[in-house]
Every structure is written in structure tokens, then in C-alpha cells.
């Protein structure tokens, strides 16, 4: 039976075992303070799109992969941008009893084998994160046994997938009592399911739904989930955004804890919940999400489920009162911003391989050089015009977890941050390799083949050339990463 589109739009009644190889483009994500971060400590803001129920997409709307191809097509010129650039796709899994073609069933691998595992792997092939969303729109107590069984299974089967995020329960209704009481009820179940996931999956980011169709946020500040790698879900449609109270909740809570807006959207409609425009809702919302570093997926990539991004012939809805073109253009404009592997711009490239290279500074075009061809511990590292000497050649060796030693070919000694310091201006030198984190470095792609090079002991800093200099002899030093060209390096054969 075909579900009525309005039934599973979010916020409907309110004023919703296989290990895989880790990809550098979709590394594990963690949280710190109010931020989602990548393994190098860079702030990450994921931006993307929600699908409808996966089985409904597969059976009724032309297949899951065909839709993913459509909304990751970098050569689609509809709207005002040349292509699609989502970094995350949300994968709703509607439970049994709501008229979907299929659902996950306890004791069966059919849904996993035929629907969910192929979709997750296809997302990874596109360098895209995916959110496995248990898409209930009910009071939190509707079926706790099924929810716990669902997450026990999913945690075991996706614990090794770096691109998988778990959304525990789409929209807890729970709209009775004070806000503190609503959250206390929801929190007790969410804590149980969080614990279930963490029993099997220690590294996946977990998204925790909130009361009143994922809109009550303030009580979380004094009573958060006990655990790590957690962000909290908020859903905001035009009628919600019109409320100053709702807007204030978002901004005040986002100052302290990570939020993830897994549903927002608009269209021109008689439905006051969803009726909106780019100028009154879409752009102000995007400005706020960017300002506070809130990740998001819009709702929804479909022709019928509301609010739709596409017309019935799958052409993109564009114009001042439609979200399709606006979402596509926003994703394009933000395609290099706060991506995993970069900070502010770039990101998502591949980690280098072991080998011998010259390291060329993006600003000066000069290479990393050991002063005077020295081999003594403490010899200064600087930049110089490339002449082919072994003091300008460096061997990268992966010491585990994509953390590299950078060994001078002439000296056999390691690129080293003096005295394990993390202070701006600290000397970069060579020293006998001892395995310290001040001698291990990570490489995060920025753009055009360049990398930020970061010592493991000081993840907010990087290898840079002092004073943005282009002169021979300008020294290498440690400095907070700002994204400047003097802080970016290419690797090439010497």
C-alpha cells in the first residue's frame, strides 16, 4: 500500500555484520564542546538531504541508487549551480505497521542485505555520510523492545562503518507536562538505547531526538545524555521558525552542545506548517545554522512526500517559494566549508601513502629544507628553493591511524616540534625519532592537492612558514591553523 505523503513528513501534527574500509573522505566523527569534529580536530558541519523511507523509495520511486545518483550528480545544472554536493544523506527506516513495502524485522537479515547494507555502501562509494534514522513519529514508549532490538542489530552490523551515523528515534511526540518532564521521559529511553549502541559500536556519532516532534531543547543543557559522540536533534519548519521562542532555543542551546537539524524544508502550500520562502525562512535559517555550526539534512528528496524538492517528472523545484533549487545551490556554495579533513575550506581528500617526497609550500613555491644540510639534533627546518639535495627530501612512514613520521633523507632524523610545545611560534627542527606525538603528523587535504600538516600532540596547530614569507631561509614553525597558503603543503616526487 502506498503511504499518504503527509503521514511521514516530519512534525506532522505540531505547530519526525560487515566491516568496511575507512575512507579519508568520511572519517570517524566526534564531538567536543558544541562542535562536531574530525580526527584532526577540525570543526565539521555536515550538510545534506533526507530521503523518504528506504523501502518506499526502492519500490515506488525508481530505486534508491538512482535517487542517490541524482542528488550527487556534479553535472546537474538545474537551479543556479552546476551540480550537487551533499556530504550527508539521511536514510529513514520506517518500522513495521505503517504501510511501507518492507521494514527491518527482528531475527531476519533480509532488510539489511537487500536495503540497508547496499545503501550504506553506495553512500560510502560517493564519499558521503549516511544517517540510519529509525523513523518513528510517536510517543517514545510506543515499542521500546523493538527499538532496542533494532539498535542492537544495527550497532553490531555498522560498528566499523566510518560513514554511518545513528539517529535513535526520529520524532518523540511526548508533548504533555513541563519541558523538563517531557525531556526526562524521552531522555530515560534515549539513554538506554545509547547504551545499547555503545555496547557494540564505540565510534559512531549518535543523534538523540528531543520532545514535541524534536523541538524542545533547553532542558538538555542541565540533563544531557551520559556519553560521548552525541549530538541532539532539532526539526524546524516555517511555522516553528516564526516563533521567537523556538529560534532562541536553537541559538542558546547551540552555544553549548552540538545540534543536528535532521529536518527542515518549505514549499508554497496552504499548509501553514510548511508554507515558506527563501527570503522569510530558507536563507535566515541557513544563516543561523552556519553561524552556530549546526549540521543539517533537509526534508525531503521526493515528488510527493512533503515538502517535495522535485516535481512529478523529477525536475527540480526552483523559485523563491521552493526548496529544491535553494538546497542544491546552498550545498554547492558550501561544498568546501567545514568538510572533514579541512578547516573552513577544502577537505575530504585522500591521506598520502608511505614514500619519499619533497614538501612544497603553497604560498612560496619553495620546499621544506634542513638548514645547512645539517644532521645534528635541533637543526632548524626552513624553506629554500628546490635544488635536489637530500636535505630537501622527506620519507613519510605511517605509524598507525594515518599518523606519519616525516624523516629527513639526509639526516635520518624526524621532523620534530621543539620540546613538545604547542605554543605559536615553536621551532620546527630535526631530532632522533623516539615515537613522540610531537614527531607524528597528520595530513588533511585542503584543495588542489595541498594539505594541512598537523602534529598529533597539537591538533589545532600546523606546520607553517613564518610571516607568510616567500624568501629563502624563512623558518618553519608551529602556528594555529588559519587556512592561509603558508600553512599548506603539496607532496610530490623529488
Task: Characterize the structure shown.
23% of the residues lie in helices and 22% in strands. It is built from 10 helices and 25 strands. Strands 4-5-6-8-10-11-12-13 form an 8-stranded parallel barrel. A 6-stranded antiparallel beta sheet has the order 18-17-14-25-22-21, with no helix packed on it. Strands 1-2-3 form a 3-stranded antiparallel beta sheet, with no helix packed on it. Helix 4 packs parallel to helix 5. The longest helix has 22 residues. It starts with 29 loop residues before the first strand and ends with a strand.
List keywords for this structure.
alpha/beta, disordered N terminus, 10 helices, 23% helix, eight-stranded parallel β-barrel
What topology emerges from the helices and strands here?
Layout: E1 30-32, E2 35-37, E3 43-44, E4 47-50, H1 54-60, H2 64-71, E5 88-93, H3 110-125, E6 129-134, E7 137-138, H4 144-158, E8 164-167, E9 171-172, H5 179-200, E10 206-208, H6 211-214, E11 230-235, H7 238-241, H8 244-254, E12 259-263, H9 278-292, E13 295-299, H10 324-333, E14 355-361, E15 367-370, E16 381-384, E17 394-398, E18 404-408, E19 414-417, E20 428-431, E21 441-445, E22 450-455, E23 461-465, E24 476-480, E25 489-492
Parallel strand pairs: 4-5, 4-13, 5-6, 6-8, 7-9, 8-10, 10-11, 11-12, 12-13
Antiparallel strand pairs: 1-2, 2-3, 14-17, 14-25, 15-16, 17-18, 19-20, 21-22, 22-25, 23-24
Helix pairs in contact: 4-5
